Amino acid sequence: MKIDFDIQLQKGSFQLEAKGSIPSGSVTALIGPSGSGKSTLLRCLAGLEPGAKGQITIGEEPWLSSETELPTHLRRIGYVFQHAALFEHLSVSQNLQYARKRAQGEAQHSLPEIAAAIQITPLLERQVDTLSGGERQRVAIARAIASNPKLMLLDEPLSAVDENSRYQLSLELERLFQQFQIPTVFVTHNYAEAARLTNFAIRMRSGKVIASGPTAEVLDPTHGEPSATQAPFSTVDLHGRTDLAEEGLCQLESAIGQLLVPLDSIPNQLPRRIIIRSRDVGLSISKFEGSSFLNQIPAQVEEIREFSNSQALVRLGCGSGTLVALLTLRSVESLKLKDGLAVYALIKSVTLEQS
């Protein structure tokens, strides 16, 4: 179910002129600086901005055109706000039942199945006003799925929860995206979360779409403009694990090769992707024997790009994946780095991050 949009909206001094397409079945990140129009575009897709003009087409169904403006309640969307908008006078179970009663079409998933998937079964009889921030957001996501949506719209659903809950909830979202296969548009300021959770990204600035494509390409720090607030990183796909309990290590099978990381840093449910910060990748022309670096990955320099007055980003091909190292210009010069040069990427196990 492809989504095409070409939307214009004047809202005070802010003007939205957003045009783009979202591939069928994708989990799409809307990224960009504050005030770029991410949440406004999401609200337009939901039909919550009455002044919006232009076109929105979901599959073959027009939601907005010069002749049509489909009301929000007929668009079959599941909307999750930044702060969970639950019915405070109802229990968790009653919140889900309310959504199910108003669902359109034949329900694809039962309420117990939804509750189990997002791990809120023990909360079903609780009153909403007794829940923590993370619990409330889980219920809000479950309620959105219970409405049997064609499209999920998530407006920074992780920003209102504490850091301890944020990563766990992101793992649950990752699992939900795989299990329920509902097309989703996900607004986030956190590029690492976008890299881990989505497969398509739209970058916005000043009310316009300035880039779109596979998330890894849109977020590639060696392409486009460097972010002033987001440290550059690489996204690495994971394929499997072997726990080396006696050594306290976990051996990960990844797109760039085998990686050794502390066992207690990897959750029981293996994420699909892992983040490696560019500042935590060093380079060597030869392999270090007897070194404390557990991860020395054979690589080839693909691109060198100046990042600042004193630093450069070095893009590396490693196996079937890529890494990006952030080095000083002096290091680039002393190592005589150039495109095509064979090197080793040095990654400390303690610097591998999941989000």
TrEMBL record:
Keywords: ATP-binding, Cell inner membrane, Cell membrane, Membrane, Molybdenum, Nucleotide-binding, Translocase, Transport. The lineage of its organism: Bacteria, Pseudomonadati, Verrucomicrobiota, Opitutia, Puniceicoccales. PANTHER family: ABC TRANSPORTER I FAMILY MEMBER 10 (PTHR43514). GO terms for molecular function: ABC-type transporter activity; ATP binding; ATP hydrolysis activity; molybdate ion transmembrane transporter activity. Coiled coil: none annotated. Residues 290-355 form the Mop domain. Pfam families: ABC_tran, TOBE. This is Molybdenum ABC transporter ATP-binding protein. Residues 7-231 form the ABC transporter domain. PROSITE patterns: ABC_TRANSPORTER_1, ABC_TRANSPORTER_2, MOP. NCBIfam families: modC_ABC (TIGR02142). InterPro entries: AAA+_ATPase (IPR003593), ABC_transporter-like_ATP-bd (IPR003439), ABC_transporter-like_CS (IPR017871), Mo/tungstate-bd_C_term_dom (IPR008995), ModC_ABC_ATP-bd (IPR011868), Molybdenum_import_ModC (IPR050334), Mop_domain (IPR004606), P-loop_NTPase (IPR027417). One of its GO terms (cellular component) is membrane.
